[in-house]
Design brief:
The chain is built from nine helices and two strands. It is mainly α. The protein folds into two domains: 71 residues, no CATH class; 94 residues, no CATH class.
Length: 189
Amino acid sequence: MLEALREPLETGQINIARAARRAEFPARFQLVAAMNPCPCGWLGHPSAKCRCTPDQVARYRGKLSGPLLDRIDLMLDVPAVAEADLSARGDGESSATVQARVAAARAVQLERQGKPNALLGPDEVDRHARPDAAGAQLLKQAMARLALTARAYHRILKVARSIADLAGAAQINSAHVAEAIHYRRGLAD
């Protein structure tokens, strides 16, 4: 069933063909998903014991195909939060501050290319998301070391462009590329 998401994630459309009829529907959406690190859910938890074998963990993670994962831009490992940290007041940025930075980054994207970075095609990525020399070298090394696909290459550059926009940087540098690669690694760790 999850594999049915591949086409709409890639194209923003879904095509349904039945008998002699064919219909096309818009399907642009933002996918937010979560999964446990293993079948029992305790892998990597500091105060609990995982009872899963490496084989069980591999089978569990294998339920998500490479082609589906290749279409997901950001994959983060979110560790368990200690009880003391849950009740403590954080020192992070306010939602209003983050919202203003995101709105400014989006405005820059719309002015620069007429659409958000996520909707850039491969030629547009080459034009608007070209990293500096150090960033290009880092991406080249990551492509070889992590065996990334051409789709992953373009998605990393779009995410790096967004990271640079959020930082107010006109040029994508190696730090932006490194962060985008980090988000791409997902279940490989």
